[in-house]
Design brief:
Distance between the termini: 43 Å
Structural class: mainly alpha
Bound molecules: iron/sulfur cluster
Helix content: 55-70%
Number of helices: 10
Number of strands: 6
Shape: globular
């Protein structure tokens, strides 16, 4: 619970910046983790990790069979190529990035985020488990078909690089559409995912119309 001086400081700052709300390091980490749980990211991670793709490899905070011993804002905010792509297709990437851009003190595999700070953005926690389950099933099939070591890792890195290029090419329409095409090609083997995505988009469009 925030202490009294923090409450007083919050109240005066809220008056100055009415769109800013007090939050805590712990709360944003929990929001991020809950969000990823609802998106069903662990389905994708499971396949990725069993194909030697874990993004925690070599981290001194990783404890064998226990997991991460130092959850931080930086690792929670970070999205690999697969998760980046997933949120991009769901039109949620911008919201995610806007939220984390407001969280100060993110460092590589650690943070110096203050215990309490102010933010204007929030994250609405979605539920897309069926989409990530479809994505994970496609990924598993790909791993079975391409037994070469590093295939899943290379695919993830390629998606990651192109997702980054997509963001950087916003002001260059020609390059932007070339990158969009490349991403589409890279993601073309994800058949189950695309089927589930089409269904989801149809349902969303119908709901918005009604
Ligand atoms: S790289 Fe991505 S899919 Fe793989 S374990 Fe890390 S977050 Fe999960
Ligand atoms: S600090 Fe980050 S990289 Fe290290 S184990 Fe935790 S989540 Fe993984």
């Amino acid at each position: 619970m925030p202490d009294e001086p923090f409450k007083q400081l919050s109240q005066s700052l809220i008056k100055l910046h009415s769109n800013m709300k007090p939050t805590s390091r712990e709360a944003v980490i929990e929001t991020g983790l809950q969000y990823l749980r609802n998106v069903g990211s662990e389905n994708i991670c499971k396949v990725c990790i069993s194909n030697s793709g874990s993004c925690c490899i070599g981290c001194r905070h990783l404890s064998d069979r226990v997991g991460c011993q130092r959850r931080n804002t930086s690792c929670t905010a970070w999205l690999c190529g697969f998760l980046n792509y997933l949120l991009y297709e769901l039109n949620l990437l911008e919201e995610w990035n806007d939220f984390w851009n407001e969280v100060p003190g993110q460092k590589f595999r650690r943070d110096v985020t203050p215990e309490y700070f102010f933010m204007s953005k929030s994250l609405s926690v979605p539920n897309f488990r069926h989409l990530s389950e479809a994505f994970a099933a496609d990924l598993e099939e790909l791993a079975r078909k391409h037994i070469a070591i590093g295939f899943i890792l290379t695919l993830r890195e390629k998606l990651d690089k192109n997702m980054e290029r997509l963001e950087l090419s916003r002001n260059n329409p020609t390059y932007h559409s070339i990158i969009k095409r490349t991403i589409k090609e890279l993601a073309s083997p994800f058949h189950r995912f695309h089927e589930a995505l089409d269904e989801y988009r149809l349902c969303t469009a119908k709901r918005d119309k009604d």
